[in-house]
Amino acid sequence: MGDWEGTYEGKRSTVSYRLVSSGTALMETMETSDASQMVTLYHPDGASLLMTHGSPSPTWTPPAWPLRPRRT
């Protein structure tokens, strides 16, 4: 998939995308220059797509929630 570099909240950051679990999930890993790391998995759950996020922040959102297509 790939790696990207940029700035997140004023910190130099690297974001990596990898297919994991035999290609059934997409893992996004973000590392910042202060050594903090966030990991997000996008994965199927039956007919739904879930996003599960892990972060060192004490104020992060719930660990998993369904993603729904945008309705137009």
Describe the overall structure.
By secondary structure, this protein is mostly beta strands. It has one domain. Helices cover 0% and strands 62% of the residues. It is built from no helices and 6 strands. It has strands spanning 2-8, 11-20, 25-32, 37-45, 48-54, 64-67. A 6-stranded antiparallel beta sheet has the order 1-2-3-4-5-6, with no helix packed on it. Strand 1 and strand 2 form a beta hairpin. The protein is globular, with a radius of gyration of 14 Å. The mean pLDDT is 83.
Question: TL;DR?
Answer:
By secondary structure, the chain is mainly β. Helices cover 0% and strands 62% of the residues.
Kindly list the characteristics that best describe this protein.
72 residues; mainly beta; six-stranded antiparallel β-sheet
The residue-averaged pLDDT reads: 83
Q: Care to count the β-strands?
A: 6
Would you list the SSEs in sequence order as H and E? EEEEEE
Number of domains: 1
Taking the alpha carbons of the first and last residues, their distance comes to: 29 Å
Largest sheet: 6 strands, antiparallel
> Which regions contain 5 or more consecutive residues with pLDDT less than 50?
none
General shape: globular
Question: Helix content range of the residues, please?
Answer: under 10%
